[in-house]
Design brief:
3 domains, single chain
Length: 415
C-alpha cells in the first residue's frame, strides 16, 4: 500500500491492488473489488472465436484497434468481435461502428465476462481498471498491445517520476501486472523497441509491424477527406489547419494560447487560399472545449470527432505542443509546427526522450515565434528533415501494418 499523508488517516478512499481502501480515524476498511470477477469469470471457458477490443478505456472507434478491426472485416474472417465502449446506445454509435461489431458496456459485469471468455484481447491502453476488478489472463488467452503513441517525445510510465513516486505504487503494481499479460507489443521503429521495453515494463515479444492507424497515410484518402469536409461543411476551396494540443497532468489550461486569427492569416499569406482551423483537444482536456475553442466561423471544434487519423489525413498542416500525433502526421510530409508555451516547465515535470529541436518541426513558444516559423517555412528543407528523422529513428512504416497484425491474429486464433 502507498504511504498515506497524515490527513488521509482521518478519512480517505484509495485503490490498493484489487481492494478499495477506506481509511476512517486510522482504521482501514478494505472492500474486495475483484469479487465479481472471481464469482462468475474464472470458470468461463475460452471461446476460440471471440476477440475483445478496447480503445482508450472504452472510448470511440479509433486508433490502432479500429484499423485492425477494418482489416479483419475486409478479410471476412468469422470472428465474434466485441468492443467495450462507455456508451452502448445505438443512436450514439450509429454510422461509427461496423454492423458486425458487437458493443458491450465498458466496466460492466458483462464486459468482464467477455474478457474472461475471449481468445484474444486487443488494446491500446492499460487494463488497470479491470485488473482492480480481479482480471487475470488465463491459459489459452492472448493479448496484443498496440499502444497509442508514435515515435513520441514524451517520457512514458517507468521513465516519469510523477508516475512512479511513493503515492503511485498501487498504480505501478497494476501497470507492471498489465504489461506481464501482454504477449505481443506493436512498434514501428528501433526507437520504440528500445524505449517501450524499459518504459512499459515489457519483457515479451515485440512485433515491429508499424502502427495500423498509420496505414491511412499510404493509401488513397480522397473518400476520407471528402467525409471530413462534408461533416464540418468545409468547402474544397479552403485549406485545413489541425491544432492538436496535448493535456497537462495538472490540468493547466493557460498553456493553450493560440492566436487563431493571426495564425490563419499567416497561413493564407504563406500557402495561399482561405484556411480554417479544426481544434481537437486531448480526451483528458475535452471538458474544457467550450472555454478554450472560440466560437468563430474559421475555427471548428473537432474534439469529439471519433477518429483523429481521419482529421490528420484530411488536413493541410498541423500544429501541436507535445502530442505524438504530429509524428503520425509527418508521414504525410505536410507542414507540421510545434507551439509550446510551457516548454521548460513541461520538460522538467514530464520530460522528453530527445529535444523538440531535434524534430523536423519548427519550435515556437510564443505566437510571434510561430508566425515567423510559418513565414520562413521551407518545404524542401522540411521534407529532407522528415526523411532523415525517420531514418535515424529506424522507422519502418509502409502502409501494411494492419495486414501483418491480422496475419498474426489468424495464427493465434487457430492455436
Amino acid at each position: 500500500m502507498a504511504k498515506l499523508r497524515p490527513r488521509e488517516y482521518i478519512f480517505s478512499i484509495t485503490n490498493s491492488g484489487t481492494d478499495k481502501l477506506i481509511m476512517f480515524l486510522g482504521i482501514p476498511i478494505r472492500i474486495d473489488m475483484s469479487k465479481y470477477y472471481k464469482k462468475f469469470c474464472r470458470e468461463l471457458e475460452v471461446d476460440n472465436n471471440k476477440i475483445v477490443i478496447e480503445n482508450f478505456n472504452g472510448g470511440s472507434y479509433g486508433c490502432n484497434p479500429k484499423y485492425i478491426t477494418e482489416e479483419i472485416i475486409r478479410r471476412n474472417l468469422p470472428y465474434d468481435i466485441v468492443w467495450l465502449v462507455r456508451n452502448v446506445k445505438k443512436e450514439t454509435n450509429k454510422g461509427i461502428f461496423p454492423a458486425n461489431v458487437r458493443l458491450v458496456g465498458y466496466g460492466t459485469k458483462i464486459g468482464l465476462k467477455e474478457l474472461a471468455s475471449a481468445k484474444l484481447w486487443i488494446d491500446n491502453q492499460r487494463k488497470n481498471y479491470f485488473i482492480k476488478k480481479g482480471l487475470v489472463k488465463k491459459e489459452g488467452q492472448y493479448f496484443i498491445q498496440t499502444w497509442h503513441g508514435s515515435l513520441g517525445i514524451k517520457k512514458l510510465d517507468a521513465d516519469v517520476k510523477a508516475f512512479t513516486n511513493e503515492y503511485k505504487q498501487d498504480w505501478v503494481e497494476r501497470a507492471k501486472f498489465d504489461s506481464s499479460m501482454w504477449d505481443y507489443l506493436l512498434t514501428n521503429s528501433e526507437f520504440e523497441n528500445n524505449i517501450f521495453k524499459k518504459a512499459l515494463w515489457f519483457n515479451n515479444e515485440i512485433k515491429q509491424y508499424g502502427h495500423p492507424r498509420n496505414d491511412i497515410f499510404f493509401k488513397d484518402s480522397s473518400k476520407i477527406q471528402k467525409k471530413v469536409r462534408e461533416f464540418y461543411e468545409i468547402p474544397s476551396s479552403k485549406k485545413i489547419l489541425l491544432y492538436v494540443p496535448s493535456f497537462r497532468d495538472d490540468e493547466d489550461i493557460e498553456c493553450y494560447k493560440l492566436d487563431y486569427d493571426r495564425i490563419l492569416q499567416e497561413f493564407e499569406k504563406k500557402f495561399g487560399s482561405e484556411w480554417v482551423c479544426i481544434t481537437r483537444l486531448h480526451p483528458r482536456a475535452k471538458k474544457f472545449d467550450k472555454y478554450l475553442i472560440p466560437e468563430q466561423e474559421n475555427v471548428i471544434d473537432g474534439t469529439f470527432y471519433p477518429d483523429i487519423q481521419e482529421l490528420l489525413v484530411s488536413s493541410d498542416a498541423a500544429i501541436t505542443d507535445y502530442s505524438s500525433c504530429i509524428f503520425d502526421f509527418m508521414l504525410s510530409r505536410k507542414p507540421g509546427f510545434i507551439f509550446a508555451t510551457d516548454l521548460d516547465e513541461y520538460n522538467t515535470e514530464r520530460g522528453f526522450y530527445y529535444p523538440l529541436e531535434e524534430t523536423p518541426f519548427p519550435v515556437a513558444q510564443t505566437n510571434d515565434e510561430l508566425i515567423n516559423n510559418i513565414k520562413m517555412f521551407d518545404k524542401v528543407e522540411y521534407q529532407q528533415k522528415v526523411e532523415q528523422f525517420l531514418k535515424d529513428k529506424g522507422c519502418t512504416e509502409d502502409g501494411h501494418a494492419s495486414e501483418r497484425v491480422v496475419d498474426l491474429i489468424e495464427e493465434l486464433m487457430k492455436r
